[in-house]
Amino acid sequence: RTGQLLSRQTMAVDTARITELLKALNSDKNQERQQAEKLFQQAKASEPDAIALGMLAVVGTQSADVAVRQHGAVLLRQLVGSTAISGEDYVLTRMAHQHRQELAAGLLQLFEAENEPRMQRKIGDVVAKLADSACHPSSQRGWLSPQVGGWPQLLPLVFRMSDTSANPNRGSCESSLRLLKELVSTLKKEVVGAQQQLGQVIQNALAGEDLKVRVAAFLLICEIVGEVEKKEWAPLIATCGVLNQMLEQLAQTSSDDLEECLQALTMVAEVEPDFFKQSLTSALQPAKFMSTIVKQRDSVDNSVRGLCMEWLVTYCEKKPKWLKKSLPAFAPIAIECSMDLLYEVDDSEEDLRAWVSRMDDEEGEEDADENFHTGEDAIDRIVKAVGMDSASSALFSLIGRFSQQDAWQAKHAALAAIRQTVEYVEETDHVSEMAKLLLAHVDHQHPRVRYTALHAVGQLANDQAPHFQETWHQTVMPLLLKKMDDQVDRVAAMAMSAFVSFGEELDNTLMATYANEFMQKLVARLQTTGHRMVQEESITSIAVIAGVIEKDFSQYYDGIMPMLKQLILNAKGEKENRLRGKAFECMSLLGLAVGKEKFLPDADQAITEMMRSPLEADDMQREYIKEAAERVCKCLKGDFKKFLPHMLPGIFNSFKIETEAANDDDDDDDEYVTMTVGEGKLVKVKSTKLEEMTHSVQLLRTFITEMEGAYREWVQPTAEALLPLLQSSESGSMYEEVRGEAFQVWAQLIKCVKAADTVAGATQSGVAAELLRTFLQRAIASMQEDDDAETLREAIDGVGECVKNCGPGVLNGQEILQLVQTCFKFIDDSFKRSSASASEKKDGAAGAPPELQQDEDDEDAMEDEEDNLRQTIVESLGCIMQVAPVEFLQCLPECQQRISLWLQAKQNRVLALFLGCELIRHLKEQSEPAWPIFMPAVFQSLCDQDPEERIPAAYAVNLAAPLASFSQAAPEAFRRLAQVVNGPAPRKSQERAKVALDNATSALLALATAKGELCPPEVQPWQFIVRRLPLKDDEEEARKVHEQLVNLVMEEHAGILENGGAHLGKILSALAEVYKQEDLCTKEADQKILQVFQRLPRESLVKLAGNFSEKQQKKIERMLT
Q1: 360 with 393: CB under 8 angstroms?
Q2: Per-residue exposure over 900-928, b if at least 16 CB sit within 10 Å of its own CB, e if not
Q3: What is the side-by-side order of every strand in the sheet holding 672-677?
Q4: SS (H, E, C) 322-379
Q5: Positions of the region Disordered (predicted)?
Q6: Which run of H or E residues covers position 398?
């Protein structure tokens, strides 16, 4: 028993007893400490008033040991605020209001009277926490008075104590300013309302000589800028000059304070980058200061240099368009700083020996060369943010300068810069120059230079495929083969890694010419090396060869598979998990390559060994095994069924979640994630558990998709296992990913049942309809309680997929009407959220000076999510139209009204056009009553500057072209589409513009084939179409166009053969290019392309040879043999 800590008559606190309790809680004796913890918990439960006021008394006892007082302050902070973010009651909520007021008054007295700065700040932490509870706008549980929230005495005291003109104690001023900073988010309105007092406090603090006080004011300014509206913090722009001067002073005096200020400035750059606009424009500050610090290698801590680099990078990311337009000197400064950091690698013999012997997945790899890794990350982010147009001049100049220096570190930096930025290079000439520089260094005398050159070759192969492979394979492949024997195993392993990247995107006809040499080399290395990285990369390289040459790998299969089995049996060591995982990966890829018949006997052993593998939650084998199992299933299809009884129980069991109460300390704990359960209660779950659940749902999706009707007997238990995920009230980003996957798996279950019914000859078993109605009931009920755009998007996407997979005849007219009305309501709700967000933004900027108004860099991620949600709802409406076009006609007037309304606002035009596309696509001629509403907008948008508008506009023409009623509009459609398709090609980085061009080309082809006779004489559609072949950026349109083209060739269509067959060579070149590329060409089209080339006379192919690249020629030769 704790005894009574307070006298019931006098409420006197037993300070001595609580002091002893605190000492016991800090005891180094486990039993004593555990007993004290038990007593503390009992006191919190039975005597909340006593324990809180008692802790206050101990904290205020000047004669007590400082450590005891500080510990008391820490515990008191927990008692007065919610440390459990689960929302459970904390001690303050169970105290009498009179005692809460005593506690609040006592805290302010202690804070003002305390002379020891560190202790005063601890008390300030308690005050800030109590303020959170006492001033909470929506929860009365922590209020000091029964009916009124707030703490009227707090701000006047803090303002008075923060003012250096009223408080001569500089330590007290600093503590008070820091407390005021903590109160800004809680008392935002009150702090902003006291503008005159606040301005005086800041002005006096900055004008003083005490550096600690000035730092506290610096941090206060940053906090205000980060928390309040622009119009409220705008006057603080005037302090930028003083803040810059303080940075210069701190760089000479106090590293810790400088680090704290830099962290605050980076936060401001992240949330309110416009704060720096004026200072940057007038003096390029604080960018100049940041760059100066980054370049000081020996006199400044690496952590400080890293923070300065982070500020420069963050500003590039937040204001790239403004920098390009108004401050072009900024990006080169940031890039030069990155290059300086890239130069800094350890260069002693001991460091080199450690690097050579270390595996790239071992501890120490990330810790070594800290500044180099900072530079790697920085230069990547900068170039990505500002674009190669803004970065290229400085970047290429620095790469050239560094590469020409004698020091190996300089060359290493230049190669690393290429590796980090080659993704963003647009011009093929620049790619070639980079390739030459890399290949010139793969035989450098220093192993780290060779390693980085090879690493960059691999990255170049990833980012510039297939152009790099097609242009450079004759140089690169022999070189990589040679470097696999590098005297340093780590470099040899990187040569193999580069081969993996290069080979994955090498056409199979080209790979076939190299496969034998590489297989001999890789098998030899695998059999003779003891180096784990060389073993791992040898296995992955073999898998790549198998994946590329497919059936032709059969000649190597019988030699490789036994080696992999033996390796799996022997690789049991703690550090061999990745090696074992890669062996599973290779086995599954070999199976896909050679096919089911040859792989089936080995598949049994592969799956058996996967299931025997003891996996810890964070074991890297888990991802390898998951993906290997998916490949085996993809290979075996329905024959995978025999493994399900052994695999599914474990998968279903993984959906059971064990939770723990969450608290404040979990915010920075990567091991756990927080999620909402029940009625708003927050709990924590191990992140690895949610990753396991995600893997399990993804496995189910693959099994059902690949096995189709063969999965039928497992539909019911799978649905039962998934059902809790559909109706769950839990929320959290990782859990929502699991649920989003579960929605798609449910749709696949419906498709599986339909496939099984078809095989069995049953038109409708009723199970698919039951699954659909269950999903609609649970998903829509959940959606009606949700306002998160992303989770709503995943749910409505699931609705559309389930409806589409269930097919026609399931939902009646009334159900269709209700579902459509529900979809439109979700769109209305989304628009309301967007409107509220826009109003809030507008109000926040109202009254701010012009330079703080929104500019081209201001983007609203929330609005993007709402746009995506609304478009997904329209796609789901299309699924409803697809399965019930007749029943949907009753909804056509509502669709017309919506389209008309949305077209009135520019920002909603895309949504209106996509709804129009769905009507044409599924209702065909019956959509024509709506054409007068949206067709004029279609034609206006065909040539709009925004590619997001051009995409649905072109798609609408594509869909309408075959319909008779489109004849009148066809000539103008030809003119407008020709203008787009014959225009300049988008740049590599303009992803959506490339998609829009593919759609315009597809639409022009649809018009030319369906309405060719209506084409105006001045338009040459086939010439323009052929110019854009093959399509590659919109894969769905590409597959349709390429199949349509091969059909036209087989039909000897007049457009194909016009001008004496002038287009035929280029069309055949395109068909050869996409042949056997499943992303761009269907299997049916592959067969037709094969027939076309086999039927063509050899002499015709010889005449057309000039149209074919080396790769295409080899593919054609392969087809003919």
Answers
A1: no
A2: eebbeeeebbbbbbbbbbbbbbbbeebbb
A3: 660-661, 681-686, 672-677
A4: HHHHHCCCHHHHHHHHHHHHHCCCCCCHHHHHHHHHCCCCCCCCCCCCHHHHHHHHHH
A5: 837-866
A6: helix 388-403
How far is Cα 703 from Cα 634, in angstroms, rounded to an integer?
8
Q: How far apart are CA 802 and CA 797, in angstroms?
A: 9
Give the right CATH number for 427-549 from 3.40.1110.10, 1.25.40.10, 1.25.10.10, 1.10.10.10.
Answer: 1.25.10.10
Tokens, residue 223: 């906090």
Residue 634 and residue 693 in contact, taking contact as beta carbons nearer than 8 Å: no
> Using a CB cutoff of 8 Å and minimum separation of 24, what contacts does 249-256 make?
249/211, 250/211, 250/215, 251/289, 251/293, 251/300, 253/211, 254/211, 254/215, 255/300, 255/301, 255/304
DSSP one-letter string for 721-737 = HHHHHHH---B-HHHHH
* 205-238: pLDDT as tens digits: 999 999 999 999 999 999 999 999 999 999 999 9
Closest CA to 130 of 139, 118, 143: 143
Q: Where does 8-151 sit in CATH, by number?
A: 1.25.40
Confidence of residue 1060 (pLDDT cuts 50, 70, 90): confident
Mean pLDDT taken over the chain: 91
- pLDDT at position 734 is 60
User: Whats the size of the chain, residue-wise?
Assistant: 1121
Q: Is the distance from CB of 44 to CB of 81 less than 8 angstroms?
A: no
- Asked which of 493-502, 655-664, 857-866, 1074-1083 is least confident by mean pLDDT, the reply is 655-664
CA dihedral defined by 974, 977, 982, 984, rounded to 10 degrees?
160
- DSSP collapsed to 3 states, 273-318: HHHHHHHHHHHCCCHHHHHHHHCCCCCCCHHHHHHHHHHHHHHHHH
Mean pLDDT of 193-199: 94
**Is 232 exposed, middle or buried (CB count within 10 Å of its CB: 0-12, 13-18, 19+)?**
buried
Confidence of residue 150 (pLDDT cuts 50, 70, 90): very high
How far is Cα 584 from Cα 597, in angstroms, rounded to an integer?
19
Mean pLDDT of 305-328: 96
Output the CA torsion sign for 278, 281, 284, 290.
positive
Q: If you average pLDDT over residues 1015-1031, what whole number do you get? A: 95
Of the candidates 120, 214, 198, the residue with the CA atom closest to the CA atom of residue 156: 198
* Secondary structure string (H, E, C) spanning 938-987: HHHHCCCCCHHHHHHHHHHHHHHCCCHHHHHHHHHHHHHHHHHHCCCCCC
**Which residues lie closer than 8 Å to 476 by C-beta, 6 or more apart?**
439, 457, 461, 469, 502
Burial of 573: CB neighbours in 10 Å, binned 0-12, 13-18, 19+: exposed
d(CA 376, CA 366): 12
The closest alpha carbon to 903, from 926, 935, 877, belongs to 935
Q: Specify the DSSP class assigned to residue 682.
A: E
Question: What DSSP element (H or E) covers 529?
Answer: none
Please spell the DSSP secondary structure of 143-193, one letter per residue. -SSSS----TTHHHHHHHHH-TTT---HHHHHHHHHHHHHHTTTSHHHHHH
Of 287 and 7, more confident: 287
How far is CA 679 from each of CA 2, 683, 723, rounded to the nearest angstrom? 35, 12, 19
Q: Where are the beta strands (DSSP E) in 511-650?
A: none
At position 607, the amino acid (one-letter code) is I
- Looking at residue 405, its amino acid is Q
Q: Which long-range contacts (CB under 8 A, 24 or more apart) does 843-846 make?
A: 843/229, 844/229, 844/230, 844/231, 845/229, 845/230, 845/231, 846/231
Residue 622, φ and ψ in degrees, nearest 5: -55, -45
Q: What is the pLDDT of residues 857-871, one digit of tens each?
A: 876 556 789 999 999
Q: What is the pLDDT of residue 762?
A: 66
Give the separation between CA 448 and CA 442, rounded to whole angstroms. Answer: 10
DSSP letter at 26 equals T
Report helix, strand and coil shares of the chain as percent, to nearest 5: 75, 0, 20
